[in-house]
Cupredoxin (Lipomyces orientalis), 235 residues
Amino acid sequence: MKSAYLLSLALSVGTSMAYTVYNVSVGEGALDYTPNTITADVGDYVVFTFLSGTHGVAQASYDSPCSPYSDSTEGAGKTGLYSGLITPIRNYDPTYTIRIDSTDPIWFYCPEAFHCQSGMVGVINPGDGQSLAEFNSVAENLSRNLAPAVEFGNTTIGATTSDASSSSSSSSSSVSSTPSSSSSAASSVASTSSSSSSSVSASAATSSSASASNANIAGSAVILAVMAAGLRLLA
Ligand SMILES: *[C@@H]1O[C@H](CO)[C@@H](O)[C@H](O)[C@H]1NC(C)=O
Ligand SMILES: *[C@@H]1O[C@H](CO)[C@@H](O)[C@H](O)[C@H]1NC(C)=O
Ligand SMILES: *[C@@H]1O[C@H](CO)[C@@H](O)[C@H](O)[C@H]1NC(C)=O
């Protein structure tokens, strides 16, 4: 069917390249992330699924386990990833999804009680000379396990930043006058320009509408052109 073909063409133009979704179970055994080491490319996603207990995923620097990334020298002035503390309820396993925006190492720990000291640590893309065993052994001796103040980074698969996050569902069902992602730092350029393209993507490409990048804006223009051409054909 012609219109279906056009829709899928539009979607493929507007959506970025292929990505891999990595899955990490949180609290599958006890105080653990499974797997605890992931290698991912830019544009990939990591989905943490909370299976038991009360746990979180908080970013730290390699040099400073069990404390928020923003408190470290490396992370000064930045907002680290943080899921918040999460307790699964019956028949529902909550998730926290991040997008890999660079291949810089992401070290993380559970800030609940002394879980970090007890080996509940992990890493995405460890750097040269860095090891999870070393991070863990430093963590073991620390007297404090600190949680970040701000939840940050949760996004949806298909979103083009890791910051589409916290604010409700991403679908742009109506044009909101305020920028959608109210949270901190990284959200960048996007928000203002996104409203201009949202009317298009709302009808055609809801799955990828979570945020706008320059690429998406360009993509949306192409989508518009393709759809207009298609409508003329059908008319
Ligand atoms: C992650 O889980 C999803 C859904 O079950 C699956 O499609 C995908 O292949 C998994 N990713 C990896 C890397 O195993
Ligand atoms: C992340 O966002 C998804 C989709 O909106 C939501 O279901 C999930 O509960 C959120 N997770 C956290 C930790 O906020
Ligand atoms: C942790 O503490 C133990 C016992 O005090 C000590 O032997 C070990 O070297 C310490 N590890 C690190 C990485 O500081």
Remarks:
- Residues 20-23 surround 2-acetamido-2-deoxy-beta-D-glucopyranose (ligand 1) (CB under 6 Å).
- The domain at 20-206 is CATH 2.60.40.420 (Immunoglobulin-like).
- Strands lie at 21-26, 33-34, 37-38, 45-50, 58-60, 95-99, 106-109, 121-124.
